[in-house]
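Protein modeling request. Please complete all fields; requests missing the sequence field cannot be processed.
Requester role: graduate student
Desired output: 3D structure, token encoding
Chains: 1
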Amino acid sequence: MAIALQMHGGNVALKFLFYHDMNFRLKKLIRVYKEIYEYDYEPTERSVKLLLRKYKGRGERGY
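Delivered output (63 residues):
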């Protein structure tokens, strides 16, 4: 896990980056987009959860 600072109009926001989660999503999302756009498949319920970060029982944002 890494912590990044971002400035928003004078406010500092901490962003937590979960590398394992990001790598997991990057590996899976390529396949999901390929199936949708190249093969014209309908996304599965599992793919939709991945796209919306509703997986692992972690709520809407995945954390």
